[in-house]
Amino acid sequence: MSRPHDPPRGFFPFGNPFRLLSLKSSALSPWLLSLLTGFELLLAERLKKLIPKNKDDILTLSWMKLAMESLCETHENINTLITDLHLPVSDWEEKWVDVYLDISVKLLDLCNAFSSELTRLNQGDLYLKCFLHNLQSGSDQKKYLQSRSSLDSWRQHVNANNARIETCREVLDSLAKSLTLPNVKSSAKGKVLMRAFYGVKVQTVYICSVFTAAWSDSTNDLFDLHVSEKPLWAKVFTDTQSVVNGEVRDLLSSGRSTILKELERVDASVEKIYPMIQDGVDDTVEAETFKDCVMELGTQAEKLSQGLDRLLEEVESFFKMTLSGRDVLLCNLRSSDLISGNVFGEDVG
User: What is the pTM of this model?
Assistant: First the structure.
């Protein structure tokens, strides 16, 4: 539906977002207000959960999993809202459909990039397993050399750049450049839908920017979004963004090799073990210390691998949800056009 010569567009770039957000009680029926209020309160609760009691939990894989679960729940809620509104696809303005499809393609691209990075990091576990296997099969100089080689390979692997993550910034920029809402004049249901979409897109862009910053180790990929004060989730979002961004920036400015907490713990264990292998273990005390360090590495590596697997599952769930939403919309559009006697994609004049 977009024409090749049209300029790049972000989320619903159809005017001033704050115009729609000045909804008054008299503009909507009690039923529509109830639907919108329920949606926004759920979103506020979800965002509040992203502020942990201990800020050190931010950017753990369990926190990232919670963030992705939160995003999936919000997208499920918007699908439920669309159903509750009884707003047939045939009643959607063409520009809404056009932009929805454009957004969903970008979300699929982000999911693919995130999945590739999680898979890449988890592949590093093979080097750690090889390291542990070499030590278990002997402790002579040859085994130490093989073990050191495995740790070197692990370091190179996890510190390598992922070209797909590097493209995320461009995708996010295109989405965040115009966080606006269309000016819906004739449809009360359309106003509710677009205001709800505003919350969805703000949460989506922000969480994806945090993930990208975590994997690129760059504050340039971390967004500070300015949102309207009107939605019921606005204050919670601003608080969440402030806390999370503050912690991410502190981590990035600390000079750490990585800001992902589980990965950092594995890296710390590797840093302890590496000089021991290089210099050799001479006496009983050193041998006992070395054994404890190796056990700790095995434990932390297992936690990292499990955390990456769980987060990957959530990212894949979000991918499937986005893809399913596109399929349903396209099928409904085809059905609507066939019922009206038009072929999908044909100019109906």
Answer: 0.83
